[in-house]
Design brief:
single chain; QueA-like; Thrombin, subunit H; 2 domains; six-stranded antiparallel sheet
Length: about 375
């Protein structure tokens, strides 16, 4: 269970969702019961029948920023800059007046340190240094950079969601219009309805299935909701490159759990009520902030918890999650929560039943 190949499975490309379900709560939901090992097929809105009065639903309220910038090097060559640690950039801005953070740079030849990049909307950025695949970039403009980013930046969709987002690409007017339409739609679709805390470069996608109406229905039925924050980073898409998964170093991500939320979670546990985590990001944050008894400690910092089979869960009783990439750390996490082979068997069923996979795909409830 520690070999990377233990987490592979076959997935037809046609099942990779390129857009969300038109009505979020009508996406499909696979229900896995860890006690009976049963599998049921439902719609996501049926979650109202699966959650119990008194359950505490813990959601990640991070908001995705348009962190992908397109522009040119001084030579005229095209360059793409992806901000991968927005939270660190905001801290650097508060401390120094400059937005500087880790980025990924894509170009025909990686620009040398000291190179100034032109990224549209009067955004200029200087390459400071490189560390392996990551580059440190400093953006000019101080606080003025943030509104420019919101205008110039594009949503940092996962690489398996295909869009023509390059304005320099030679294409006809219809393709350009389609690209602009997708960009505007993705700015809405690639956010949860409760997203408020700006800082993520990837959405906590299990939450994309909720609508405001569905949350109100759950509340009326006695299900409570608590908000935590984990700013999802690019590390969620970084492939595991080691044969033994225990040698993998997961990227850290900035989190916040305030005192009031910690008290609510701890009281729910003391009352014997279930803690239902929405998404693997919520799972990792809750488990990272739990002591051995499952009691949550409020705080903020960097979460670098890598959960794989053998891990003992301390806080989370059930989870809502999407269907994850083969050989990914997210697949390893849900395998730790249930059972690796049963998860892979469920994925085979999902393929046979033509569930939609990954960020814009269908959901799974494991209890």
């Amino acid at each position: 269970m520690y070999n990377l190949s233990d987490y592979g499975y076959d997935l037809p490309e046609s099942l990779i969702a390129q857009a969300p379900c038109e009505h979020r709560s009508l996406s499909r939901l696979m229900h896995l019961d860890r006690r009976t090992h049963g599998i049921c097929h439902r719609r996501f809105l049926d979650i109202t029948d699966l959650l119990r009065p008194g359950d505490l639903l813990v959601v990640n309220d991070t908001r995705v920023v348009p962190a992908r910038l397109l522009g040119h090097k001084p030579t005229g060559g095209r360059v793409e800059v992806l901000i991968i640690d927005y939270a660190a950039g905001m801290k650097h801005l508060a401390d120094t007046g400059l937005f500087q953070c880790d980025c990924l740079i894509r170009a025909s030849r990686r620009p040398d340190p000291g190179t100034v990049l032109e990224l549209g909307y009067n955004i200029r950025a200087t390459v400071i240094e490189h560390r392996d695949r990551i580059s440190v970039v400093c953006f000019d403009g101080g606080n003025d950079f943030l509104p420019r980013l919101k205008k110039a930046g594009k949503m940092p969709l996962p690489p398996y969601i295909k869009r023509n987002q390059d304005p320099d690409r030679k294409s006809d007017s219809q393709e350009q219009a389609d690209a602009q339409r997708y960009e505007q739609k993705d700015r809405l679709d690639y956010q949860t309805v409760y997203a408020t805390a700006e800082g993520a470069v990837a959405a906590p996608t299990a939450g994309l299935h909720f609508t405001q109406d569905l949350l109100e229905t759950l509340s009326a039925r006695g299900v409570d909701v608590a908000r935590i924050t984990l700013h999802v980073g690019y590390g969620t898409f970084v492939p595991v490159r080691v044969r033994d998964i225990r040698d993998h170093q997961i990227h850290s991500e900035y989190f916040i759990i305030d005192e009031h939320t910690a008290e609510r979670i701890n009281q729910a546990r003391a009352d014997g009520r279930r803690i239902i985590a929405v998404g693997t990001t919520s799972v990792r944050t809750l488990e990272f902030c739990s002591d051995d008894s499952g009691r949550i400690c409020a705080g903020q910092g960097r979460c670098d918890l890598f959960i794989y089979p053998g891990y003992r869960f301390k806080c989370v009783d059930a989870m809502i999650t999407n269907f994850h990439l083969p050989e990914s750390t997210l697949l390893m996490l849900i395998s730790a929560f249930y059972d690796r082979q049963r998860i892979l068997d469920a994925y085979k069923v999902a393929v046979a039943e033509k569930y939609r996979f990954f960020s814009y795909g269908d959901a799974m409830f494991i209890e």
